Every structure is written in C-alpha cells, then in structure tokens.
Model the fold of this input.
Amino acid sequence: MSDLFAQANPGLEQLPLPDADVRFQREVYPAAQCHTVLHQLMDETHWRREQITLFGKQHWQPRLVAAHGDDGLAYTYSGLTLPMQPWTPLLSRLKQDVEHIAGVIFNSVLLNWYRDEQDSMGWHSDDEASLGTAPVIASLSLGATRVFKLRHKTRADLPTTMLALTNGSLLLMAGLTQRHWKHAVDKSRNACDARINLTFRRIIQTV
Done:
C-alpha cells in the first residue's frame, strides 16, 4: 500500500492497473445529499468557459470550469492559467471529507461542469510540474454517471480501462499514475443530465 494512502478509508477499492495507484469508492455521499450539493455548486460557483492550447492551436474547452484554493496559488495547464478563488464553506467541507478518505491534505480544487452529453474531456495526464512527480488527485463526482477511460502511455498490450463514475463516488490517482497513464471522459451517445466533477490536488509550486 502506498504511504500516501496509509490512512485511507477501507471502502476504497484498488484497481488492478500496472504502473499506477488508482482506487475507487462508491457512494461517499448518499444520492439526496449529492443532489443538493450539485445544485448548490451550479448556483454559487463562478463558472468560466476557457480556451486551451493544444498542438499550437486554441480550442474552447467543452465544459465549464472553476478553480478554488489557498491564497497565492494558481493552476496552469495547456497554456491556461486559472487564478484561485477563495474556498467557500461548501468546498471547504467537501475538501475536509475527501482529505479524511485520502489521507492527504489538498490546497486546491478544479471543478468541471459537464452540462450534458456533449461536454467531455480529452486524453491527458495531470503531470504539470506544479503538482510534483507523484501527485495525488482525488476526483469527486456528483450528478450523472459518465465513463472514465484510462490507457497506458507505452504499453499497447494493455486494454483501455473503463470505469463508471457514479453519483457520489470518489476516484483517487496517486504514485506514478500520471507518468504512465492518460485519462479521458468522452462525449456520450446517450442523453445525460448535468455532472460536476471536483478534482482536489496539491500544488507544490506555481509556474
């Protein structure tokens, strides 16, 4: 067991992935509470639609985003720098609960609002220098279930792993996961209600 998860909740299930430390827990919160939190986040968050740079070209992100964290922090990825808004009482409570499960102290959270089945996230790794060499990413899902895909960067013999991120579930990625794996959330062929994903992380330097 990774030292980073020495205090983790025993409800976490280890995924059998080589070169990775990925764990999953369903129903961190009951459905009724998730519904309340989801709509509160929709209403009180200052959502932004941002452009990122991919292969030298500007693209609109196919979802809405927001970032909150400790004073003085900013998060940069794909040519986009998001200044941190202050923690709200709701986000502070969620952070505290996630920290209790993960056994890790986080100083920031990136929120993604998938408004419907057309919103998505392309293949990438959370391997920015500001997160360190072995970051812990704790991903809390609220609302509609979406399929989370993982594929190894160099081993073509390994099949793509697909995991249904259900309402109220928590996914933890740690160790060398970001070095060896990419992940994505594709558009859905079926109609989807709203989903908000909160990815708690620890920024160790601002670049």
Q: What stands out?
A: The chain has one domain: 13-201. The domain at 13-201 is CATH 2.60.120.590 (Jelly Rolls). Residues 37 and 142 are 8 Å apart (CA to CA).
